[in-house]
Amino acid sequence: xxxxxxxxxxxxxxxxxxxxxxxxxxxxxxxxxxxxxxxxxxxxxxxxxxxxxxxxxxxxxxxxxxxxxxxxxxxxxxxxxxxxxxxxxxxxxxxxxxxxxxxxxxxxxxxxxxxxxxxxxxxxxxxxxxxxxxxxxxxxxxxxxxxxxxxxxxxxxxxxxxxxxxxxxxxxxxxxxxxxxxxxxxxxxxxxxxxxxxxxxxxxxxxxxxxxxxxxxxxxxxxxxxxxxxxxxxxxxxxxxxxxxxxxxxxxxxxxxxxxxxxxxxxxxxxxxxxxxxxxxxxxxxxxxxxxxxxxxxxxxxxxxxxxxxxxxxxxxxxxxxxxxxxxxxxxxxxxxxxxxxxxxxxxxxxxxxxxxx
Length: 358
Hints:
The protein has 358 residues and is α+β, with helices and mostly antiparallel strands.
């Protein structure tokens, strides 16, 4: 099997056959769920492997005919071989892609955190623009958005907003959005028409409620306090806001909705996501240097994208992509074009690593 790890392909075929055999015996519910999930993951891979093996067999037969000396049959075999080689090359690429290591969090929903950065009121307004962009993109993708906590800016937008975006594969699509987003435009408060630069930070964390994250009660400090809103809005007369501090890491999560019980649930949800992401970062630290500068490095202090309103331009600095479609992108309708390019670049980097000898 030139160009592919033959032993691994045969092992996958054997595993798939064993799973189908076990499923046919009528296993208990937990085993059924586990095997069905693995079956669904392996099915597209094994299908391509079977196609690949079939094409290899036909190629071998065509080569034998060409070497056999019958001129008329050889001419037909030559034509067939050309098409088979094209199919073979396409299948090799498809299988290489399917064999790439998967991010365990890709299928998950996400916790989206947006914070206004440098730029004061304009940064908060920009954070609001970004939230509307992601909300509209989620709507177009068939995902559900739920605001978990928010702190409004004095002139609009958000000093901070945290939301859950639910759906299958949300993290796979949005995980490259983490980082510093910069905006260049004339602020509403600017009378001279000067262009200002502001920024907002985006953090995309996988929602990990169904993954075991050990949080010891003794590691938490939970405080309640009086909730308040921008300009006196949404003020709660009871001490319902909840602040949870994870003592070992120093992570602090605050939720200030109307219900104290709801706030505890929201704060723990966000804390769990942050701890999971911290664990992922620690686990990947050995590869940090190799990943530096690549798409998806996860460094939230990195300036990843600029939205230039006067020129109608959006530039993603990680892949040197510039699109003069700012209106469509900031409206959430053109964001897929950037995400697709980021995913493609990431996959290309994985394939390059896949091809390196161990």
